[in-house]
Amino acid sequence: MRRTLTRVESAIHGRNTPNGRCRTHNRSSGVTLTEVMVASGLLVIALIPILKALGTATHTAVIVERKTRSLALAQAKLEEIKARSVYHYDDSFTENSTSLGGSYLCKANDDQGPDLRTISVSVGYDLNGDNDLAAGEVELTLTTYVARRWPGP
To answer: For the chain, which residues make up each domain, given as ranges?
Structure first.
């Protein structure tokens, strides 16, 4: 015994047409060329600011990395000078564009005071590759005092 389906049931079960498909499913389910072009345009418009932000973030990260590396190298150079000054206080600690590894360069200035010296160490990244630390390449400068050690009693 076969029961007759109502219109709603026929639409739900896909028995509206002779081939068993619902009439609403006969339409093409693709997208038009206009829709693709509009979506692509919106995507490009949204990507431009995102790519600019990523470029800025990358540039900022490089600057921070260079400053951090320069700080570590400057501190190490100051510690080296302080250690040398214990036994060689009368030597000059002035250096000009000394390589610290990679493209990092260092300049050390010494005022050569008789009992108290001011030592300044400037470190930076050699941007133009000329092995000379120019003013525009200096990332940071650290200054300290070094005193003559008097012999003990």
So the answer is: 31-147
> 18-37, pLDDT tens digit by residue?
555 555 555 567 889 999 99
- When pLDDT is averaged across residues 77-100 and rounded to a whole number, the result is 93
pLDDT(83) > 90: yes
Q: Cα 44 from chain centroid?
A: 24
Closest CA to 110 of 71, 149, 146: 146
> Which of the four pLDDT bands, split at 50, 70 and 90, describes residue 14?
low
Q: How far is C-alpha 90 from the chain's CA centre?
A: 43
